[in-house]
Design goal:
This protein is α/β, with parallel strands linked by helices. The protein contains ten helices and ten strands. The protein is globular and about 60 Å long.
């Protein structure tokens, strides 16, 4: 089972050795089994990657991200041909009815708002948490009444201050963007492995966005990022720039626990389950079959 996220901050050379990732940095060498890897994030622009390693990563379904000058993920290496019946999945995706799309979107946003309400409850903003819960429980198909936007207007100022908005260029948004990008990468990886085209979304439909479907599906996972960054911010550990330590903490969220149908899984496992359940939901035309994540108190999963 793949579960590791590796961040390369100090450059060096990445190559393949005995079906393991070999990391060579100055006089040091490290190896990681390919089968353990889920995501590799390349922060340093001085990193050299060999072609045999890229092929091995693709065959193993490992996602590799490169970052821009602001240390935010800007490119992704994704495998193709991972699913045994890609045409079958393509036909299902192209045949999605507008009605089912709206029902799926309503379920996704309902769960997102309920997870936001959990975050607010965790920071003792009980009244606003109840307001968001009421919005979620009155969700309509396609979110016709714009509850997602209403929830966001109440939610973010309670967490990060009255003047905070997601459009600002500031430290908090830089950290949010980094962690959201890691989630997006993990979701795109899972969708491709299950045969879905990440460009073809349910709600998101930008012609210049190669990950519309991934952006749809990460919505209910975003609150776990928000709560983690809130905790870092409250401790006073949120620096003006993304430090290696903070990036490691945010990438590690993929191995934090969430629940689905009263069972506990890692975020990475739930992302995979959500992508897999999409087929059953589409085939049976039942949006409620989509397996969505439920927030629980922040806890990193411990593998036995």
């Amino acid at each position: 089972m793949s579960w590791r996220t590796v961040i390369i901050d100090n450059g060096g050379k990445l190559s393949l050795q005995n079906n393991q990732l070999l990391i060579e940095q100055k006089a040091q060498k490290f190896t990681v089994p390919i089968e353990d890897l889920a995501i590799i994030i390349i922060q340093s622009r001085e990193t050299i990657i060999t072609a045999p390693l890229l092929s091995a990563l693709a065959q193993a379904g490992v996602s590799l991200l490169t970052c821009d000058d602001q240390h935010l993920p800007c490119g992704q290496w994704l495998p193709f041909g991972q699913y045994c019946r890609p045409l079958q999945i393509l036909k299902l995706q192209l045949g999605l009815s507008t009605v089912l799309k709206k029902q799926l979107w309503a379920e996704i946003i309902k769960r997102k708002i309920l997870n936001q309400a959990f975050v607010l409850q965790a920071i003792n903003s009980t009244k606003t948490a109840q307001h968001l819960t009421n919005l979620a429980m009155n969700m309509t198909s396609g979110d016709k009444r714009g509850f997602e936007a209403q929830a966001a207007m109440l939610y973010f100022p309670k967490i990060f201050g009255k003047k905070f908005t997601r459009k600002q260029e500031n430290t908090i948004n830089a950290h949010l963007n980094y962690a959201y990008a890691v989630l997006r990468s993990a979701m795109a990886r899972a969708l491709v492995q299950h045969g879905w085209l990440p460009q073809l979304g349910i709600f998101h439909h930008s012609e210049v966005n190669p990950f519309n479907l991934a952006d749809d599906f990460i919505e209910p996972f975003r609150p776990i990022v928000d709560l983690k960054i809130y905790q870092i911010f409250q401790r006073g550990d949120l620096s003006d720039t993304l430090t290696p330590n903070t990036k490691q903490q945010l990438a590690a969220l993929l191995n934090y626990d969430m629940q689905s149908e009263r069972e506990t899984f890692t975020v990475l496992s739930l992302i995979n389950r959500m992508a897999a359940s999409f087929k059953q939901s589409v085939v049976q035309k039942d949006a409620k079959l989509l397996q969505l994540p439920t927030m629980i108190p922040l806890k990193e999963h411990h593998y036995e």
